[in-house]
Amino acid sequence: MSNTNQNELKTLAETRNHTITAPTLGGMQLFAQLVQQLGMSTKTNDKLDALVNYFTHADPKDKVWVIALFSGRRPRRTVNSTQLQTWCAELINLPLWLLEESYHTVGDLSETIALLVPERADTPATAGKPLHYYVEQFLQLEKADEQEKKTFILQSWDELTSKERFVFNKLLSSTFRVGVSQGLMVNALAKIVQLEPSVIAHRISGNWDPATTNFEELLSEQDISFDYSKPYPFYLAYAIEEEVSNLGEPAEWQAEWKWDGIRGQIIKRDNQLFVWSRGEDLITGKFPEFSALQAKLPDGVVIDGEILPYRDGQVLNFNVLQTRIGRKNVTKKNLQEAPAGLFAYDLLELGGQDIRHLSLSERRTALEILINDLQLPFIQLSPIVDFNSWDQLTQLREQARNINSEGLMLKRKSSAYLVGRKRGDWWKWKIDPLTIDAVMVYAQKGAGRRSNLYTDYTFAVKDGDKLVTFTKAYSGLTDKEFAQVDAFVKRNSIEKFGPVRTVKPELVFEIAFEGIAASNRHKSGVALRFPRISRWRTDKKPEEINTVEDLKKMLELYGK
Amino acid sequence: MAQVIEFTDKGLYCPAGQFYIDPWKPVDKAIITHAHSDHARPGNQYYLCHHDTKPMLQLRLGDHHYQSIGWNEPIYMNEVKVSLHPAGHIIGSSQVRVEYKGEVWVVSGDYKTEDDGISGAFEPVRCNTFITESTFGLPIYNWKPQETIYSDIRHWVHSNQLAGKTSVLIAYSLGKAQRVLNAVAEVTGNIFVHGAIWNTHQVLTQAGHVLPAVIRVTPELPKEVFKGNIVIAPPSADGTPWMKRFAPYSVGICSGWMQVRGHQRRRNADAGFALSDHADWKGLLETVKATGAEKVFVTHGFQSAFSRYLNEQGIAAGEVKTEFGAEEEEAVENPEKTDE
Ligand SMILES: [Zn+2]
Ligand SMILES: [Zn+2]
Q1: pTM of the entire predicted model
Q2: CB contact, 8 Å: A116 with chain B?
């Protein structure tokens, strides 16, 4: 709290004849409060304030964990939800079905348990432990047997308040999601340490272990220990909403195909090779193809690019690669069936120097020299699409789907490589999605914000006089529409099976998606990429929806 | 043999006494448990209710044939003995005890077991058959003592004052608004209320209830007067342009539903206070046990879960479908419309 605020607080307290004691919060309490504030606030500024407040007051060790947690370094899950449900039901002496019923209403198991376990009237002597105590216990639990886990969890539930218990359960079940972007956290940290946001972003990315890192080390003014694997934060583009012609002179812009693969960074430093995905996972081992780069790339180089399924000079459908990403070990067969390549977009570091501040044209020139020197068939420059006018580019964009591209990227030639999602210099200009009209056949309650509404739907198309399901889709309706569909579901359920309701096939929706591929896991024989509800076709009757033949035609056209 | 109370498409019906309790379609004789819009509907020929409910019915339903009685003052309708008993839900809210040929049925209406100091302390009534609401009939609903919640609300008001914001509290105009009013009266000089709450406040004070003074929000009031103060508004006003005049403000919703984060987020509240005028899980269970009823019918809320649990506990219970439960959410009293 700032000085002025404190003075105001004092005067206010005096005038109102009320003593306000600013409560000193325990570590978990402070963290629970942060999570609550982040979850409830809809304004970015409020979230920023909450984070700044947290980083100002929290225990330094807790802060390191929060940075880690909010940048995706969650502790591994050591217990499953069945164990948690069983122990909770046992503790509060209620039948398991009632716990499940409660869970369906709340939509979140961690919160359900937090609400079900009664809060103690007194504060136990064991209360008030910091966040890092619990997280470190979680790490220990990895090796513990079931009884030890149970004892620790029951003891913790008992000593924590309901709000603390919620974040405890979230951490424990590793289902922690916060609506905080990396950028927002960086901005909050920049307010309390003397470092540029871009430097903070770089420091907190990469390969560091929160259990052995302390706050001062992580964000000290001098970089003490240099981590060679550390990637740069990615520069991301927004979708362009206005007319491209408003961007000005075509000559100032570079157009490239937009690829739909795994955005990644290839790092060669200290004679080691690292491959990072945008989700900040180290995926070096998943792509043995790239190991040749270790010998061929000069030291001190960082390339930004897209990892794609690639064979004989052709980009394949992304689904080809998807099958091998999930695997722990990549087999020879995988490598043959789904070979990966890299399309290089940008060069961020050269000769050990951060060159992100140079213009795109300068970086591209350096990138071209580097890639051409490599002479490796699976490392390609992301091709530049030449154009003289926006009209011409608009026409070229139509070809994207034929080459398994999602559209175009527009980058200002003079632009530096920025941090995070920024407007102005880089834009993505995707082709319009594919669409199909379908009827809703199943509905399920949503999670979290929409836990009491039926918001998760399964859709079907016609197959002769039958219906065949082909996709689920979630987002895309307004709150008002969700409420209307929810009311429809409740009135028109034919059957209830667990949480799923079978509904009268009456409501027609337009489903938009980015790609289509053959699949034998789905009855319809196809799998869609990024399906979502694009609109509710109240003007259409269920007889007028598309057919499974229509899907197959799309597969024929775009599914290769 | 006919039941003492039957479940018909017009509502709960006592054939021997030829009256309905909280009917949802117009009937000749209606006994009204309380003045909330899902229990008290217009168009009946005759209304019987508690003395404290009558002025509220007059405000909300207009002129009709009303008869009012006090708690524990039995009257006879044909050979059926009828009496009202405090339900603790809102001012005037009552349970209806119906006795015919030695068999006793009780209709709870809406109730809460914690004494709020305004509505009259709830009394469980011994009966053979108990018809209970189940609005919050899941074990996740376990209320904190009201004093704890009041102090949370006061804390929140304080922090808004420090931030130079107006505190807008969302509460049902009948019941919750009066509780909240009492809870915050000591922390602020002026409490402003929405027209709907003002109307209710007028009727209640004229009927002799003692409530803290309030100021009605009108278009003439300069914006500056709200700063740092408290405004109480009904759910129907939340998110409407009417709120703009309070900027900068923070919205706190007072409702049992605020127990669950998802609801709080969906309502877009800055703060949620799980303050309810209904019994929580424990309250419902304790009440059912205290009535000594051999048979329980469960109405609006989590009927299936609550009745299944009762059955497992050895209390015969069934679900009843009613048209109760759309509590006040959509109710917008006419007078407030002249506000803007
Ligand atoms: Zn009510
Ligand atoms: Zn009710």
Answers
A1: 0.66
A2: yes
